[in-house]
Amino acid sequence: METLQISTDARGVARVRMNRPEVFNAFNEAMIADLTEAFRQLGEDPAVRVIVLSGNGKAFSAGADIQWMKRAAEASQGWNVEDARRFATMLDGLARCPKPTLAQVHGVALGGGVGLTLACDIAIATRGAQFAVSEARFGILPAVIGPYVVNAVGPRQARRLALTASRIEAPEALQLGLVQQVVDAEGLDDAVQTCITELLAGGPQAQAEIKRLMAQLAVGPITPQVLELTAQTIARIRTGDEARVGFAAFLAKQPAPWIPPA
Questions:
Q1: Considering Cα of 82, then 160, then 93, then 20, what sign does the dihedral take?
Q2: Contact criterion met (CB below 8 Å) for 60 and 26
Q3: Which of 199, 218, 236 is where one domain is finished?
């Protein structure tokens, strides 16, 4: 693809590298289209187990490309609606991808780059990485990424980040919940590999079901509907082939068949 580098290893680990380093991997219409298609294809590929999203060059992603935003400002409202829908669809496709997704963040994640980080299941960042919900600095707002920010940090912190548009360091991003792990730059690859190993130890069908179930659960009362949903889900999965072979491997003290050879 024009804006991405994609590779998949023998274990089924797919790496999607944003490849516009000259603009710090800021995304435009082409990258949005490429990311949408890449995660659709990888999500449907039975050989793919884990997807790692990263950026080539000095940054993960600086968010929206300024030239793209300039074109948007000069276009009609109808054009802007369709364009924003494509961006929203891309983030939704990443978030709903049935495979575990991991953001490997270095440099900066600004604006929509924060959205990409939060649409992934797991985010690991270098200690020197910086984050900002920066849209207000340009006279716009983080509308499409807003739900992901609120879900990650809660409404009050989301308002603070969006209203001030200030950059925060990785340790604060960890404290708020924008990322789940912070490591020194030289340890980033090792931390990602450790996480990949842990993900490959889980059953792929179980992981897809985990993502599907978690997407239906909200913070709040555990209603009779939620109780029934969880009971029906576990009953269905426990009678499946993956659960059968997984339990058999555990009882036999053998690796599950989905775990790649060491």
A1: positive
A2: no
A3: 199
Residue 149 in contact with residue 123, Cβ under 8 Å? no
CB neighbours of residue 161 within 10 Å: 25
Average pLDDT, the chain: 96
163, 204 in Cβ contact below 8 A? Answer: no
Q: Determine the Cα–Cα distance for residues 153 and 145; give it in Å rounded to an integer.
A: 13
Number of domains composing the chain: 2
Count CB-CB contacts under 10 A for residue 174.
18
Domain co-membership, 182 together with 238: no
For the question of whether the overall pTM of this predicted structure is more than 0.90, the answer is: yes
d(CA 251, CA 53): 36
Which tens digit of pLDDT belongs to each residue from 16-68? 999 999 999 999 999 999 999 999 999 999 999 999 999 999 999 999 998 88
- Per the structure, the complete domain to which residue 243 belongs is given by 203-251
CA distance 153 to 148: 9
- Per the domain annotation, does 257 fall within a domain? no
Q: Where are the beta strands (DSSP E) in the chain?
A: 4-8, 13-18, 50-55, 101-105, 108-110, 122-126, 130-132, 168-169, 181-183
Q: Cα(239)–Cα(226) distance, rounded to whole angstroms?
A: 20
